[in-house]
Here is the input.
Amino acid sequence: MASGSFCADRNALGRRVSKSLGFHLLQKQHHQHIRQFSFHSYSGSGSNPFNESMHATTILSVRKGNKVVVMGDGQITQGGSLVVKPNAKKVRRLGDGGEIICGFAGVTSDAITLMERLEKRIEMYPGQVTRACVELSKLWRTDKYLRRLEALLIVVDKDVSLTLDGTGNVIESNDGIVAVGSGGSYALAAARALLDVPDYDAEMICKKSMDVAAELCVYTNNNYTTEIIEIQKSDEGDKNKSKSKK
Here is the structure.
């Protein structure tokens, strides 16, 4: 009797363990499914299930006449639905004289780290913004730590407007207009439409284009940070001379 009772208890225990293991297995499969769903729903670059932060902003740069303007909104969104800060500064000046402007979309700490690295490259290659950006892009792409940083950068000076995306690309704009972020496409389209309007300078084009992006993109607000580079006539002359020499 004792032996039979022991066997019955052991069988009952085995059934409870099996049922518990089955439940945990189903739970694990459910969580895996949720993670996969989140990955496909949110991933912008295919590397992080929370990559919506890569796009949750709008940064725009317009080059026209004797002005280069970079403008960015101030909204920081958490979890895709909660606005945690309305007046963040996502556009900053770099270099000793502030002759270079950088705007970013993405994780703030990652972007600041990248801008610090870019400043070091600017010090190494003074007056060569494109080369500094290429060197940063190479480091960003190959370094074990930096390649995990998630941000998009716009870098402009009096001569060039560049976009860095972390995949090794350093893209120079052919029309002087660049934009990144969730509202970047709206701002870019509006800026290109307004570029030929005679009475609109670069700052006005930026402002109106950012207003369009703020109306259409839920991750963009109207608290803009604006930085401007005034291009002197001597600078334009030097640039034209360098082009003619080539």
The longest strand covers residues 58-64. The mean pLDDT is 80.
